[in-house]
Amino acid sequence: MNRAITMMLIGAATAGFAASATAAPTEADVAYTAANQRAATDYRVARARCGSLSGNPEDICIAEAKAARIHVEAGAKAQYKNTLSARTDAREAIANADYDVDKLRCSSQTGNAKDVCVKEAKATLIAAVADAKADKKIIEARSDARDDKLTADYKVALEKCDGLAGPAKDACVQAARYQFNK
Question: Which one, of 118, 67, 75, 65, lies nearest residue 95 by Cα?
Answer without folding.
Answer: 67
